[in-house]
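Provenance and format

Records in this collection were gathered into a single text stream. Each protein contributes a sequence line and a token line. The two records reproduced below are adjacent in the stream.
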Amino acid sequence: MNQPLPEWEWLRAIAETEVAQTIKALPAQIRQEANAIPILFETVPSPDLVADGLEPDVLGLFVGGDHNTELDDPLPPQIILYLENLWLMISDEGGGEAEYRFEVRTTLLHELGHYLGLDEEDLTDRGLE
């Protein structure tokens, strides 16, 4: 049961609030790391990223080197959250604002985990798949 796509401003405002609350709740050392990485909000992946193999319905993306290797990577580390994809995923399951907030938080923590050097298995073990 797909719900209509909310206005971008609403999606972004909710995501910004959830990101800030999530980072604030992290332990001090991890919070410091999280505050050091830019978190960007986009609607969906660009056509160029999709052409390069990124799934068009991806929820988030970490790019750049992790906090241990970022000096060796030519791309600065950043996290991108794809807000329309997040909304569409939860609305396909009949969700609303609470589920959207949950998925923003989970996706942020997943991508932050990559920045901290965790792989997919580590993230799955932590319930952040």
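Adjacent record:
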Amino acid sequence: MRKLIIIGSGGHAAELYEYILFQNQISTREQIEVIGFIDDDPKMYGHYGFEEPFLGTIKEHVVNPEIEYLMGIANLKYRKEIIESFEKQNAKFTGFIHPTALIARSAEIHPTVVISHNASVGPKVRISAHNILNSRCTIGHDSVLGMYNFISPQVAIAGNTTIGTGNLIGTNACTIPGVHIGSHSKIGAGAVVIKNVPDHVTVVGNMAKILERK
């Protein structure tokens, strides 16, 4: 049986927890045991009624190299900082692919990636570490995703799209084939991206336009 600790106890952690429970219910393969949760906001832990214990704060946690860690904080800034801090302490991170996700055989997916229910990943897609693919999103064939991207629910990434590092792609946003999105940018909900997007910008609308630059 795999054993893991979930970092965070808010909304994203609660969704991951439900995914694990669902897999354990339907799977005849190896089960996953959630040892507990760590969070710097102990009050958040009680909101979702987890059965597993609260194990203390993130800042004071002593990494256990024998147990896997699943990142349950979606905020890109804190997510990256915490992961890098834990990795320096030899933490072993894992991801999770929901049983209902459709994954092409030729897709290359880093083991720390989270793929939610009813998502789709096409042929020859390459997804780097610590990405989150939310429910019902689609990553088209031959697309490439760098690290630490947050792909919101029902996003449609067309084939041959390239996405850099640390981007937030809003709900129902989409791209046309061959578009390049840089790094550390925000694509607004419902945006239709038909041109390349540079680094450190926010784009919104149909057709998507730059709203601001950082």
